[in-house]
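note to self — DONT lose this again. spent like an hour looking for the file last time. sequence + predicted structure for the chain T wanted, 161 res
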Amino acid sequence: MKNKKAIFAAGCFWGVEHYFKKLKGVTETKVGYTGGETKNPGYEQVCAKNTGHFEAIEVTYDPSKITYEKLVKYFFEIHDFSQENGQGPDIGPQYKSAIFFANKEEKQISEKIISLLKEKGYEVATKRLPTKTFYPAEEYHQNYYFKKGAEPYCHFWKKIF
């Protein structure tokens, strides 16, 4: 079976990548920018909050080893999806929580998981948006925590599902 891609935004992309790299079935991760109008944005532009982009991660996965639904559930377990305008101490539109769906099936799966969370009593601020062009971030952002030998400061894993 051919590998597939999924795009998520959950605050600072360094921590999101750190956790997704740990999943069995994830074959590659790239951090970058998506959701805005500016072509080929850079980190400073996105941080200036005028491009409309989110810091995001593109996850390449083997669907014979992990499903899109499991990726979505994990996404919700590694950040505070109730936070409106950022993640932890990182505040701003580029740090908002979002799922970028590529097709009707992905949209339905994300809506189903959000409904489950709401049934469990959770507030959900996560946006659901159609996939736009994903622009890889500068090389120094890729595999950041691995290169630094550090752990994320504003991401955590919390069993929900």
